[in-house]
Amino acid sequence: MNEFVDLHSHILSGTDDGAQRDEDMFAMLDLAYACGTRHICLTPHFDPYHWPDNHLSADQAFEKLAEYATKYPDLTLYRGNELLFSYDGLEALRDGRCRTLNGTHYVLVEFSPRVSDFEVSSALNRLRSCGYRAIVAHVERYKSLFDRRDCLEELAEKYDARFQVNASTLFGEWGRKAKKFALKALRSSAVVAVVSDAHGTKKRAPDLRKAYAYIAKKRGVREAKRLFYDAPLAILQDKNI
Ligand SMILES: [Fe+2]
């Protein structure tokens, strides 16, 4: 079986719109493990406008999950957040309320789907100037980036940013245009991970097998391994990618 690293998930119960109860959280973890995931970064939304500061509730859920996960000795859990970019959010990163990915320089950052390309550039510039390296979550959702040629390479070069694509987009969850952009984006080396962004055990489940098989067939096993294992693990280890 292939082993996966899942950089983006909403498994911690009671912290956001992912798992709500501990039973849901445990079921999601069991499913992820059964599907071959061996490294999972827990990334609750950090968006104080929609959810109150969930720093403490995330800590409590993480402790429970870590205890439950002792039955899987070859599974590693990591802490993180998915930051909805704002200047308040940037402050929260700097004072530690919002977490980087496993305490590294890498920050998982998302935007509203209606964000402009100018706003994306300014946010990435700001993160870079504060010493962070941005991993832009589900890049295929941002319509303003769709038609700009070589946009991802340009943002990667200027701001040292990288990008991830959601597995479910490859099967149409965000529509035909998002899928088309995701497939185009996946030809760029600036895309460094395909993730579950799991919110439950049914829709957007923590199961990367189908997406891995799809990419392996389309782009080869070596590229699939880069996107589902090597690059996301390097991020969690704060290595250059
Ligand atoms: Fe997410």
Task: Tell me about this structure.
This protein has 241 residues and is an alpha/beta fold. It has one domain: Alpha-Beta Barrel (TIM Barrel), CATH 3.20.20.140. Helix content is 39%, strand content 15%. The chain contains 8 helices and 9 strands. It has helices at 22-34, 55-68, 87-95, 117-129, 151-159, 176-185, 209-219, 221-236, and strands spanning 4-6, 37-42, 45-46, 76-79, 82-84, 106-110, 133-136, 162-166, 191-195. It has a 6-stranded parallel β-sheet. Helix 4 (117-129) links the parallel strand 6 (106-110) and strand 7. Helix 1 (22-34) packs across helix 2 (55-68). The longest helix is centred in the C-terminal third of the chain and has 16 residues, at 221-236. The protein starts with a strand and ends in a 5-residue tail after the last helix. The mean pLDDT is 95. The chain binds fe (ii) ion. Fe (ii) ion is lined by residues 8, 10, 82, 137, 197.
Quickly list its features.
binds fe (ii) ion; 8 helices; six-stranded parallel sheet; alpha/beta; three-stranded parallel sheet; 9 strands; 241 residues; TIM Barrel
Number of domain units: 1
Quaternary organisation? single chain
Residue share in helix: 25-40%
CATH topology: TIM Barrel
Q: Which small molecules are bound?
A: fe (ii) ion
**N-to-C SSE series?**
EHEEHEEHEHEHEHEHH
Structural class, by secondary structure, is alpha/beta
Number of E strands: 9
Which architecture would the CATH scheme give at its second level?
Alpha-Beta Barrel
How many H/I helices?
8
| Strand numbers in spatial order across the main sheet | 3-5-6-7-8-9
Largest sheet: 6 strands, parallel
As a percent range, the share of strand residues is: 15-25%
From the alpha carbons, calculate the radius of gyration and give it in angstroms: 16 Å
What is the terminal separation in angstroms? 25 Å
Whole-number mean pLDDT: 95
Q: In one word, what is the shape?
A: globular
Q: Which CATH class applies here?
A: Alpha Beta
Low-confidence segments, given as residue ranges, are none
